[in-house]
Amino acid sequence: MPAAPADDAPRSYSFLGPSGTFTEVALGQVEEARGQIWKPVSNVGEALGDVLEGRSTAAVIAIENSVDGGVSVAQDALATMPGLRIVGEVLVPVNFVLVARPGTRLEDVSVVNAHPVAYGQCHLWLDAKLPTHGHIPASSNVAAAASLLDGTSTADAAVAPPGIVNHYDLDVLAENIGDNPNAVTRFVVVSRSREIPARTGADKTSLIVELPNDESGSLLGMLEQFSTRGVNLSLIESRPIGDALGRYRFVIDALGHIEDERMADALLGLRRFSPNVIFLGSYPSADRTAVDYHSRYNDEVFIEARDWLRGLLSAEPLDD
Ligand SMILES: O=C(O)C(=O)C[C@]1(C(=O)O)C=C[C@@H](O)C=C1
């Protein structure tokens, strides 16, 4: 295992680069990262590898977009790289421009370079304005834009964040090309620390859960672990496990903290039920909205019920 850095050593944060990405904007919202080392990397796997192997204290990665859904590359990496924990989340409003080399006109564009998640958020506009265009996937939108100028791209244009013109000498062919003007991307801070952020009352718990094989109703059985404890979910997505057709794992965000009795009890239920539960972390939710739940799922109600059971088992004489 890599040696732990000294307490006063500068901390390093890996993020999808180069400079100018939405991921960098997200990192800017992470208080602990201010004044620390920011390390641009080429992809999510490299960012998480940096954390696992001790080259970085933490990584910031995109995990969910309000238009395009879960970022599957990030979900799959978290499912298959044991030892990582989510310790925080931030939300970034996203919108996009189409940029090209100076002098290019919109009608000259036949191939567009874009990160797949950004492309998924702009395809209505692109299909309407450039119906015959082709798409080349990029590692990030800023990398797509930069490659138009360094001679490495065969594309005519790139989808990029609006601030791109502050970094590169490119023409903006169109603004606000996102399909939804209110699009938001959710980013998570991933670390190797086993320390769970303190409970705030406005928390999320991220999990990956597999279902028992070939049991009818097992999806319902998994959901019941949450519903019978009054735990609400804010995200549930299936991702293929990859070893056979029809085998999926579920990526879940549940509202609450592992120290909430109802969440702890749901986790115990999941652990008994599922062949594989990965606890990815409990952390304050970005919108700081207190978790709403019925009073019958208060901590006190769980504690009282446990005391009642203990009382039934004890040899103490009954009170009159
Ligand atoms: O960070 C960036 O700017 C990216 O290009 C990556 C990314 C992503 O990975 O989802 C980030 C946010 C946007 O929603 C689209 C793309």
TrEMBL record:
Pfam families to which the protein is assigned, alphabetical: PDT (PF00800)
GO cellular component, one term: cytoplasm
GO MF term list: prephenate dehydratase activity
Site (Essential for prephenate dehydratase activity): 185
Transmembrane segments: none
Domain ACT residue range list: 207-285
EC number: 4.2.1.51
Biological process according to GO: L-phenylalanine biosynthetic process
Residue ranges occupied by any Prephenate dehydratase domain in the UniProt entry: 12-192
Keyword Lipoprotein: no
Family annotation (InterPro entries): ACT-like_dom_sf (IPR045865), ACT_dom (IPR002912), Chor_mutase/pphenate_deHydtase (IPR008242), Preph_deHydtase (IPR001086), Preph_deHydtase_CS (IPR018528)
Top class in the EC scheme: lyase
Protein name in UniProt: Prephenate dehydratase
Annotated organism of origin: Plantibacter flavus
